[in-house]
Amino acid sequence: MALSRSEQMSRIHGEDTSPERLLCVALSQRGLAFDAHARTPVGRPDVVISGAQVAVFIDGCFWHGCPEHYVRPRTRTDFWSSKLVENTTRDRRQTAALELQGWRVVRAWEHEVFVALDDVVSRVVMAAQGGPVAHEDAWRVFRVDVLDADTDLERRHLVTLRDPQRETVVDAKRTTTKWKVPSPAAPPGSRRRPVVRLSPHNSEE
Ligand SMILES: [Zn+2]
Q1: What is the mean pLDDT of the chain?
Q2: CA 50 to CA 42: how far, in whole Å?
Q3: Engineering a disulfide at 127: which of 20, 42, 104, 150 sits with its beta carbon 3.0 to 4.6 angstroms away?
Q4: Is 26 exposed, middle or buried (0-12, 13-18, 19+ CB in 10 A)?
Q5: Rounded to whole angstroms, how far apart are CA atoms 197 and 178?
Q6: 27 with 124: CB under 8 angstroms?
Q7: How many domains does the chain have?
Q8: Which CATH number belongs to the domain containing residue 129 in this structure?
Q9: Is residue 158 assigned to a domain?
Q10: What is the 169 CA–ligand 1 centroid distance (Å)?
């Protein structure tokens, strides 16, 4: 995915405010030993705690169908639709395969890392200590049908990763709020929580 200029600059200046980086810093502060993108029997999750067999995935709100922030694109709809199905199918397969091999899989939404970092950290720590994995990731958008193009009414099909039988639909107006990566970046080493903004978004602009 292409980076905006401010994102490029913040990478260059070492002010990486990606959700992966924020989570890794927070986990280090809790004294947790982990590896980023280490190999597991099923791919390379964002955070891996090999000893405790914990895999952590940070799912981008758009790419993985966050029920709060998925914005249905208006152009190249076939491409984006199949992308969403593809990603969800892979997430489901990955999660199931890891859990089948005794791994604990924590999936967090990108926005959770920004607005509820402590909660995400707690879930990872709990999983690392052998506790149950909370499934806050439960519903995700799998498909969106346009019901009425004039009023922007759409039908969102939501599924869960762990139970293929579960599915629900929500009729709503097309989302116009999009997750926005916080800016400006906190200074390196700062523990200040980033400012979070949900800004109106229109893909035609
Ligand atoms: Zn989200």
Answers
A1: 84
A2: 13
A3: 104
A4: middle
A5: 9
A6: yes
A7: 1
A8: 3.40.960.10
A9: no
A10: 18
